[in-house]
Amino acid sequence: MAWIYLVIAGIFEVVWAFYMKQSEGFSKLVPTVITFVTMAISFGLLSISMRSLPLGTAYTIWTGIGAVGAFIVGVLVLGEQANAMRIVAAALIISGLAMMKLSTPA
């Protein structure tokens, strides 16, 4: 269950990052509220996953999902640039996440 909580926490990290961008420096109420609510959910699920997963693994996976997810949302939803170097960088993050998962006991 810890891995499921961790993946969901990572997804919520992407959501709060997106809405933080939409809040325009916390100047828009609805995106600001969504940011803080989803942030709380993300942190809460991360903390639950850390009950049984090592700190380094949990935090690395959580931030990696957030980083790659935010990159994907930025490209697909916000029209941000997706050049070869950025794609390779995202692929390297994903390979690092896979290695971290494989190196962690179940």
Automatic annotation (TrEMBL):
Coiled coil: none annotated. Signal peptide: none annotated. One of its GO terms (cellular component) is plasma membrane. It holds the Pfam family Multi_Drug_Res. InterPro entries: EmrE-like, Small_drug/metabolite_transptr, Small_multidrug_res. The chain crosses the membrane at residues 27-46, 58-78, 84-102. One of its GO terms (biological process) is xenobiotic detoxification by transmembrane export across the plasma membrane. GO terms for molecular function: transmembrane transporter activity. Its main location: membrane. PANTHER family: GUANIDINIUM EXPORTER, SMR FAMILY PROTON-DEPENDENT DRUG EFFLUX TRANSPORTER SUGE. This is Guanidinium exporter.
